[in-house]
């Protein structure tokens, strides 16, 4: 017990804590600025500065961002796009996680001739720059009648997310002893029985990792949204970008900041509630990938 | 009676055989949808883009073979040149800053810090944000009249100016600042995980020998983290080559095209300027850049595994 107190007083310890706390502030300041500014009046923004608290707190920026702000031509706020993002994210996350779980199960426990090649294909798919598929995908979505639809975006996010989810599940299931599967097979359990009765019940952590990783990726995506959606089907990131870069009228930074907060809230909440799974996804995806 | 008794046995044997056959094919059937989706969506489309890059396609795809014309055009394109140089500046600085900050924070956090979990959460939360959100915030902070400049004026430094965001030669550095803010925490997390795997008896032994802590980290511990270092560089380089969102929000490639990156160039030419062939060629070069990084990396990874 005496040791930590002793080390806590050494000058080198003080230096370490100072650096760490200053760094924490640097990471926090943009978020604080964003919050403060979103509650200011336009008058306050012109007279005050980044770190000055509002002289009068108002939610005007928030309500305007939600239901009146102009994103390009239309001026009914970002609420519609916020729901678009949900309608796109929820199915895409569920489908890609489900596919990833089955793929991971097959690749780790039912490998067949060519399954390693298939895994290699998926692994490489994680690294391909999406620019290389944009034009053909746009043409294909057009042919399928899915251009500018939420369904089209769901399909795109499933295709380019399934490589990651497969990787997560495969690496998780590889660590589960094969003897367990063999024993179950001797007892007469088949492909699906083994998956649903044995593997799935012990998969909660990796399911969380996959859900959270996919949710963050898909919610935050901008490239696919801006290329494959237009007007009514655009996700929130595209609407936010349009709002921020609209040049007509007086720039209202409180509205910009409120809209940015609204776009950030879902993923921030997920991060605060289940951050440890998010971090596991990050490190698993990169170290193993 | 005998007939009737034999019959179910034979049927069940046939059933078992059918089930066995099914069992054999079931795994393949289950991965088939993914195989088709990825096969077409990644590999098929990659080839398709490759084909387009050899055509003169403008607003619509045309399949006439023009050889390497588009690539030649790209090499003589002032804007592509700027985008490539910008990628060098942006990528280099971004990777370097993220590594330095990430490694330092990881080492500092590894000194049995109280509230380590809380600090880690703070360093990493920007990774959960969309680049569009990050861009919006930093655009506001770096705003030449109302942002940091005004803050410094109010805090008693009236001559302070900071207008990088609208200065062609400096705007690319504002993108670096925002990108480092967003991704350095991630490098911290990678290295912290690596440091936790280092045997602490090494440190104790070196201390007994009289080595200072910075020296121990620099010449003993960090060299053992080479694999972590390589994966971090790999992921950061990948982020840099794909960087698109931040530029679109903060500068939209401007002023002029001074902050263009290859991904922005590709988007603009393919989707707003109707130069599909040129856009495809630029996409193929981006793929080439990633391959040039990826192949040696995967090669060393696989070789490492064979040698145990």
Low-confidence stretches of chain B: none
Ranges of chain A with pLDDT <50 over ≥5 residues?
1-8
- Bin the helical content of chain A: over 70%
User: Given the C-alpha coordinates, what overall shape of chain B results?
Assistant: flat
User: What is the count of β-strands of chain B?
Assistant: 0
Largest interface: A-B, 93 and 99 residues
How is the biggest beta sheet of chain A arranged? Answer: none
Q: Which H/E pattern describes the elements of chain B?
A: HHHHHHHHHHHHH
Indicate the radius of gyration of chain A in whole angstroms.
24 Å
Strand content of chain B: under 5%
Mean pLDDT of chain B: 88
Structural class of chain A: mainly alpha
Number of helices of chain A: 14
The helix-and-strand class of chain B reads mainly alpha
Instruction: Calculate the terminal CA-CA distance of chain B, rounded to whole Å.
Output: 64 Å
Helix fraction of chain B? over 70%
Specify Rg of chain B, calculated over alpha carbons: 27 Å
SSE order of chain A in H/E notation?
HHHHHHHHHHHHHH
Multimerization state? heterodimer
Instruction: Give the CA-based shape of chain A.
Output: globular
Gist?
The complex is a heterodimer of chains A (289) and B (308). Chain A has 289 residues and is an all-alpha fold.
Chain-wise SSE layout:
The complex is a heterodimer of chains A (289) and B (308).
Chain A: H1 2-9, H2 11-38, H3 42-47, H4 60-67, H5 79-109, H6 115-125, H7 131-143, H8 150-174, H9 178-186, H10 191-199, H11 204-220, H12 223-228, H13 236-244, H14 253-287
Helix pairs in contact in A: 2-14, 4-14, 5-8, 5-11, 5-13, 6-8, 8-11, 11-14, 13-14
Chain B: H1 2-52, H2 69-75, H3 78-109, H4 116-124, H5 131-141, H6 148-154, H7 171-196, H8 200-208, H9 213-224, H10 226-242, H11 245-250, H12 262-272, H13 276-306
Helix pairs in contact in B: 1-13, 2-13, 3-7, 3-10, 5-7, 7-10, 8-9, 10-13, 12-13
């Amino acid at each position: 017990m005496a040791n930590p107190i002793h080390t806590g007083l050494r000058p080198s310890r003080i230096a370490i804590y100072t650096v760490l706390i200053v760094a924490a502030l640097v990471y926090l300041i943009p978020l604080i600025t964003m919050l403060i500014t979103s509650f200011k009046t336009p008058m306050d923004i012109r007279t005050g500065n980044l770190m000055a608290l509002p002289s009068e707190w108002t939610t005007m920026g928030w309500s305007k961002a939600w239901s009146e702000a102009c994103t390009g031509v239309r001026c009914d706020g970002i609420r519609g796009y916020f729901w678009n993002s949900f309608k796109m994210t929820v199915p895409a996350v569920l489908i890609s996680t489900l596919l990833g779980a089955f793929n991971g199960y097959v690749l780790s426990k039912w490998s067949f001739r060519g399954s390693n090649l298939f895994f290699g294909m998926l692994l490489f798919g994680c690294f391909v720059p999406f620019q290389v598929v944009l034009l053909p995908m746009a043409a294909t979505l057009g042919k399928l009648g899915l251009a500018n639809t939420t369904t089209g975006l769901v399909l795109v996010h499933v295709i380019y997310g399934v490589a990651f989810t497969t990787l997560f599940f495969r690496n998780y299931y590889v660590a589960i002893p094969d003897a367990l599967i063999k024993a179950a097979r001797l007892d007469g359990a088949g492909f699906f029985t083994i998956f649903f009765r044995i593997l799935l019940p012990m998969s909660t952590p990796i399911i969380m990792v996959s859900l959270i990783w996919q949710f963050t990726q898909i919610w935050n995506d901008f490239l696919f949204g801006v290329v494959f959606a237009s007007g009514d089907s655009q996700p929130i990131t595209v609407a936010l970008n349009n709002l921020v870069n609209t040049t007509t009228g007086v720039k209202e930074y409180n509205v910009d900041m409120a809209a940015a907060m609204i776009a950030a809230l879902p993923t921030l909440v997920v991060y605060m509630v289940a951050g440890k799974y998010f971090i596991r996804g990050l490190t698993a995806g990169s170290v193993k990938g | 009676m005998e007939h009737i008794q034999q019959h179910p046995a034979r049927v069940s044997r046939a059933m078992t055989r059918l089930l066995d056959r099914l069992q054999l094919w079931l795994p393949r059937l289950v991965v088939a949808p993914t195989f088709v989706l990825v096969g077409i969506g990644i590999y098929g489309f990659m080839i398709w883009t490759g084909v387009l890059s050899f055509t003169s396609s403008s607003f619509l795809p045309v399949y006439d073979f023009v050889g390497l014309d588009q690539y030649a055009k790209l090499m003589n394109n002032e804007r592509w040149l700027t985008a490539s140089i910008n990628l060098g500046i942006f990528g280099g600085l971004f990777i370097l800053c993220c590594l330095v900050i990430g490694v330092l924070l990881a080492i500092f956090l590894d000194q049995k810090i109280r509230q380590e979990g809380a600090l880690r959460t703070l360093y990493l939360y920007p990774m959960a944000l969309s680049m569009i959100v990050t861009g919006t915030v930093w655009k506001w902070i770096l705003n030449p009249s109302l942002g940091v400049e005004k803050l410094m004026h109010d805090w008693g430094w009236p001559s302070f100016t900071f207008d990088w965001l609208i200065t062609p030669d400096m705007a690319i550095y504002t993108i670096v600042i925002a990108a480092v803010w967003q991704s350095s925490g991630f490098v911290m997390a990678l290295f912290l995980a690596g440091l936790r795997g280092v045997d602490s008896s090494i440190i104790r032994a070196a201390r007994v020998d009289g080595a200072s802590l910075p020296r121990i980290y620099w010449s003993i511990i960090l060299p053992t983290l080479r694999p972590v270092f390589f994966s971090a560089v790999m992921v950061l380089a990948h982020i840099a080559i794909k960087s698109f969102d931040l530029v679109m929000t903060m500068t939209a490639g401007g002023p002029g095209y001074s902050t263009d990156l290859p991904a922005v160039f590709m988007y603009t030419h393919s989707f707003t300027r109707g130069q599909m062939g040129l856009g495809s060629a630029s996409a193929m070069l981006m793929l080439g850049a990633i391959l040039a990084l990826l192949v040696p990396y995967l090669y060393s990874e696989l070789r490492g595994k064979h040698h145990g």
